[in-house]
Every structure is written in C-alpha cells, then in structure tokens.
Amino acid sequence: MPEYLAPGVFVEEVSFRSKSIEGVPTSTTGFAGLTRYGPVQYPDGPRATEPRLVTSYVEFERVYGKLQPLDTGRLPYLAHAARAFFLNGGRRLYISRVYKPVAGATGRASIEVSIPSPTASVARLRARWPGSAGNVAVTVQVVRSGDVGIHTGSAACANLVSDGSVLEVVPQSDPQPGPLTPIDFTRLRILRKKPDKTQTFLDAQGNEAPPAVSAWLLPVQVSVTVAVDDDRQDRYPRLDLDPAGPRAIGKILALNDPEDEDCVVWFDYDFTSATTNPIWVLKGLVGDSEPCRTFRLKGGSDGVPPKPDDFRGEPADPDVAERKATGLEALAEVDDIAIVALPDAGALDTSEEQFAATQYLITHAEACKYRIAVVDGPRGASMNQIRAFRGNFDSKYAALYHPWVEVLDPNCPAVPGVPVQKLCLPPSGFVAGIYARTDVARGVFKAPANEVVFGLTRFDMNINQGRNEVLNPEHINPLRFFPGRGNRVWGARTLSSDPEWLYVNVRRLFIYLEHSIDKATQWAVFEPNAEPLWRNIARTVKDFLEVQWRNGALLGTTPDQAYFVRCDRTTMTQNDLDNGRLICLIGVAPVKPAEFVIFRIGQFTADARG
Question: What is the model's pLDDT at position 83?
Fold first, then answer.
C-alpha cells in the first residue's frame, strides 16, 4: 500500500481484470547437423556461436553454405532439409552446426600476408569458420580518399621507400596522375604547387615543413572483395589501414562482431604493435607492382564424419563464458523451438549409429518437454527393417516418417537430352515444413496429415494400401502417392504405446497449452497464496481455454464440456499451503483426427421402418 503522509489528491492505477495468456509459437523448428560453413563452437573461433535463426533458404545459404557435397563425400542433408522446410511452408528455423575436425588440423582456411616492416611481421587472412567452403578468393584493391589520393599506378607502388613511411600521393583533382617524386614525411607537409609548377609540401608561409604523420596515414585505404562462390561476392569498400580509422580493416573484417555478421573472412594482424605502419600493411596487401592483388585461402576442411555423440553435443560450461553448447545441446537453450529434427541421423554408417543418434534426438525432445522430434527411418529400409527400427522406441514426444524422398539434384545443371540426377533425402525437412504450414493455416490442433508434400519427384518406396495396413498399427507414418491427389503425408501417430498420446496433434496441442500457461503465469510466483490469487489464475486459464474452444481445438458443444479449471481449497491441502504450493487442476477435451472415416450404406424402401 502507498503511504499517505500529507493531505492531497492521489491518483492510482489498479487492474480490475485477470491477466491474459498469449499463445506461444508452435512452428519454430530446430535442426542439428552438417553444413558446408557457418557458426560452430570452435576453440579459437568467434565468441557468438549460438544456433542462428534463419527465416528463408536464401538466408540459410548465406550463413551456412549451399548444397554441394562435403569433401568427405557426404551430402549436407541438413542443407537439403532446410530447403525442403521452407519449400513446404516453414518460416523460422534454428540451425546448430555439427563439425568434427581432423585430428591435428584446424579445418579453417587461411593464407599468410608478409608485411615488409623492419620486424618482418606476418598478417593472415583467415576464414571465420571451418570448412572447405572457406577456401575463398579475396581481392584487395587500393582506392583514393579525401583531397589526397594514393596513386594506383605501378610507379606509385614502386616508389614506396625502404622505411615504409613514405607513399607517393597525388591531388584528388588530377584525373590521370603521372609518376611523381616520393614525398618524404620528414620534410614535407601541405601539398601545393610551387611557382615553377612542381609539387611539394609547404606550410602556410611557403616553407617546407615536416607533416603530422596521422594527416597522411588516414588516406591509405583499400577495398576488399570476397568471392565466396559464383553467385556471391561480398564487397567491403574504403577500408582504412590505420587502426584508428572509422572503417579500419581490423574492425570491419574482425573475428568477433564484424560489421557484416555473415562475414566469411577476417584480417588477423596485431595493430597494437609499436612497429605497425599502415604503409607497410598496404605494401604487404597489394605488393610492389600492381594496385590490386588476389589471395586464395586454402587449408579449409570439412573434417571427418561425426558420430552420434557429436550430434548430441556438449552442454555449455558455466565457468567458461566462451564455451558454448554444441549439437542438440545448443538447441536445448533456445526456448522458442517446438519441432526438432536430425536430418543426418538416417545417413550414418551403421544401424547402431542410426539408432543411437535417433535416441539422442528423442531424449532431447523429452528433456526439453515443450517440443516434438520428427524422426527419419533408415534410407532404403524394407518393411521388416523399418518395423525393427521403430520397435526400438517408445515416446510420446516423437513421430516416425517413412520412406525417404527422391528429388532432382539441385547441383546438377539442366542439359537438354541429359537425364537430371536424383537424390534421396530424409523426410524430416519436408514433414517439419508441413507441421509449420498446418499450424499457420489451421492451428496446432489440426493433424499434420493428408497434406501435400512439395518439391519432390517421388517417394523412395511405394507404400500401397496393404503396406499401409502394416505400418499404421505400428505407429509408422507413411508418405504415399495417390493418383489424382499427389504426394501426401498419410499418418499422424506418435511413437507412444500409451493410447492417450496416440496422435501427433494431441501431443502438440498439449505442448502448446502447457508452454503458453507456463510462460504467461510467471507473474504469480511469490504472490500471496490466497483466494484472490486463486481466482485470478483460474479466470486467466479459463479465458485462454475458451479461446481455444472457440477456435475448434477442444471437443464439446459448450465450454463446460470442453474444459474445466479448479484452483481452490479442494485442490490444495494445508500442507501444500504451508510449503508454498499453489495447485491448479486443468482438464481439456482435445479434438482427435478422423483417422477412419466410415460410411454405412444399406438399401432403403418407402415402407422401411428399421
């Protein structure tokens, strides 16, 4: 209560209504697996290595690379899954890259740049992330700046004097400057023309005088172009070689927090050294004869194929801020994720590794509680193999889809008369996109089944009615082709043996309800545990459930048939109150899919009475 210590008029804001619950997003997805490039936890890598959120496949390509095979011979199934996810209606995707370096190697591309300073220092152009995609071409070109520009002809570079403190300069107004005498910073200051039309540096009185070094180092600038591939060239214009410049090359092309967060390379050089001189850096970057120079980074490697433990990852070290979580453990730290998948699990070398990786995925979903795992069966599995694989799991937080999906190889150019190569991809990327599409179009209570699959040529196996009658009772969701209706997801069952959690949409609806109530009622912690708080919470939950009932998520013709909420002395004992426990009972009647639609037809006559 406020204190009233002196007479006056006091206006106070009070609330006469219960707080509302905002539904959490249900279509945000997380993938863990192999990519050609991109953020990954690495000993000497950038600090920010958390999973990145991408909202389109174009953005994914910029951050994590394209679809070309890795140098280990494996396909980046995660990249193909991301492409299928956005093609089928996905909108928000978190990526946790998994990378395992070759023993004794860094896996990061780099090249040395010799700086001809008195101490013969070395700079390096390095890839920010490991991977063969870091073997990029970097072009450095001299540019002019301000009233005094650097002469970009061969004579200018040749006129760099031995101590590195002098560079030939020309007036910006000269369109085509010719070779000039090198300007000695120990003698010259202001560029002017003498009466005999020769150029030198004079002070205001016309006397030759030494300049301030900073006045002539700032114009030393270069433009850097990074050719990542045929479709992408990143250009960073007018970078200062003076570390104090506003666009210093060490700041723009930095390891941590660069101007472009998707920057592919960084310039590794000690600008704090007393012998550092921008002129020497320039001479090392562009050489002695040309105004530009191209470097090809080399040494990048895609590492070795990860094992199931690498996909599971390691949790973050609470005592070391730079030690971030990896693999699935990194996705566990992102609260918004509601769907998870491991597209590379089905492509592991042995069935034991496939089982272990899938078990890690399901365990991850169960531990996080508010997400469901989309599980891929083994590639090319027969009916007996997929049934044996399914028999290893029992979880209400996972759903298994079979078979794999055949698509046209996006890396194979279309040549007239030449058949386009095809690839088989795990179904998880396609199915996760359908989950997201169904959530947006209908709601999380709608079963993500009988939905068209986009972006494929056919399924790897033909699932007919007879095979479907074997797979469906064992909770294996088939992908089927129907003539005239296209390719569709034809199952919506979880891997649970508990009939209460038979359907994917029921499990996801409860995840949505539980997570929404969890986040929206945090305000109640440490409030006085008495009737006013109980009524407020009950009213808040009832209002939220009524909205769900009106949207069609709950069964019943009236709210009383669809749900109940109780929060009073009937749900709590005195022992609960003494121990600070508030208990609210919530019951809901979810709608379940019409999996078997049955029409009973018989003959009818005019005098029939039965």
Answer: 96
| DSSP class of 132 | G
What is this structure's pTM?
0.86
Of residues 448 and 199, the one with the higher pLDDT is 448
d(CA 257, CA 35): 22
Cα–Cα distance measured from residue 362 to residue 367, given in angstroms and rounded to the nearest whole number: 9
Instruction: Give CA–CA dist 574/572, Å, rounded.
Output: 7
- Average pLDDT (402-415) is 87
pLDDT tens digit string along 139-159?
Answer: 887 664 443 333 333 333 333
Token pair for residue 309? 């433990």
Name the pairing type of β-strands 169-171 and 148-150: antiparallel
Distances (CA, A) of 480 to 4, 83, 448: 73, 21, 14
User: Cα(472)–Cα(468) distance, rounded to whole angstroms?
Assistant: 6
Burial class (CB in 10 A: 0-12, 13-18, 19+), 234: middle
- The residues near 532 (Cβ < 8 Å, ≥ 6 apart) are none
Taking the CA of residue 396 as centre, how many other CA atoms within 13 Å lie in the half-sphere pointing to its CB?
16
Q: Are strands 52-54 and 199-201 parallel, antiparallel or unpaired?
A: unpaired
- CA dihedral sign, ordered 439, 445, 451, 455: positive
Which range among 42-56, 75-89, 299-313, 364-378 shows the weakest confidence by mean pLDDT? 42-56
> Of 234-243, 346-355, 356-365, which one has max mean pLDDT?
356-365
pLDDT tens for each residue of 37-64: 989 887 667 776 889 999 999 999 999 9
Phi, psi of 482 (to 5 degrees): -120, 120
| Cβ contact 51:147 at 8 Å | no
Q: Residue 606 and residue 312: Cα distance in Å, rounded?
A: 69
pLDDT digits (tens, 9 = 90+) for 211-256: 444 444 435 678 889 988 888 888 998 888 777 778 888 888 888 8
3-state secondary structure of 130: coil
Quickly count helices (H) and strands (E) in the chain.
16, 25
The radius of gyration computed from the CA coordinates of the chain, to the nearest angstrom, equals 33
Render 156-190 in DSSP notation, one character per residue: HHHT--TTS----EEETT-SS----PPPPTTT--S
DSSP conformation class of 13 = -
Peptide bond preceding 51 in cis form (omega within 30 of 0): no
Q: How far apart are CA 297 and CA 217, in angstroms?
A: 28
Confirm if 576 and 583 have CB atoms less than 8 A apart.
Answer: yes
Residue type, 189: R
For the stretch 567-576, contacts whose Cβ atoms lie closer than 8 Å and that sit 24 or more positions apart, written own/partner, are: 567/534, 567/535, 567/537, 567/538, 567/541, 568/531, 568/534, 568/538
Q: How far is CA 184 from the centre of its chain?
A: 52
Beta pairing, strands 93-97 & 110-114: unpaired
The residues, any chain, with a CB within 8 Å of residue 384's CB and separated by 6 or more, are none
Q: Phi then psi for 480, rounded to 5 degrees?
A: -130, 155
The structure tokens listed for 283 are 């001479």
